[in-house]
Amino acid sequence: MTDFTAIDTPHEAGMGDYFALLKPRVMSLVVFTALVGLLVAPVPVHPFVGFVGILCIAVGAGASGALNMWWDADIDAKMKRTEGRPIPSGRVQPGEALGIGLALSGFSVILLALATNFFAAFLLAFTIFFYAVVYSMWLKRATPQNIVIGGAAGAFPPMVGWAIATGGASIESVLMFGLIFMWTPPHFWALALFVKSDYGNAGVPMLTETHGRDATRTHILVYTILLLPVAIGLAFTSIGGPIYLAVAVLMNAWFLKGAYDIWRRDDAASEADRHKVEINVFKVSLYYLFAHFCALLLEAALRLYGLGGW
Asked: What's the confidence (pLDDT) of residue 2?
């Protein structure tokens, strides 16, 4: 938990420091998947309403990031990857981050309810709550399954986008959720394999620390196998099609090959090439999600001309 003792500020915080609180890189992924969920939905949305809806999702994601940084400032200060963040570096005070996170949370949810519908607003509110409270305040420090369960927070945006258009949920939006949910553990565990000391120093019970790197390699392979039917299954829904299926088959084969290569390795091999395979699989995982959602967008665009789908 964050120490509320005042932090000596080396210089006055600038706009860039406050923007960094919102985790813009994470926000970009949230906005992209939410936009896809909105655009592939079967109900057309007025461009202005769609713009306001995506803006609310972006602001809500930023609010979650600020609340996460407020709560995790103590462990961020112990990790090389995060020690330069605005709060542990002293550029932004914890109370400021908390205030920004709460204000943006309320603003985004209320505006989304007024501009679109209450179901979409409820999903956004639940997403913020899940990331800030369930994941950040509880799961992250309590269990090595933090990434597995906590991954739901990052999987909700396409469901919110879909709900903006339709006012509800469906098998399509649930499978988009499932795609991100099942992708998250192998994605982050691959990262944990080559930044393992960071989590240990911060006392975060990442799987690499609690069960060891060999067990983590096995988990990566298992979750990658479980991810495959979710990704392929989406191809046979109303938003899928042959193009998406081709992309899903290729990307899952690539990802699965990488997970298998990680599983075959041991610590000696990983250290010898400075985690080359693990780093490559992490990069592949980034391409993986982008490719799947781009394929869904392409299918939706083709359907406008009677060409997409089955």
From this structure: 47
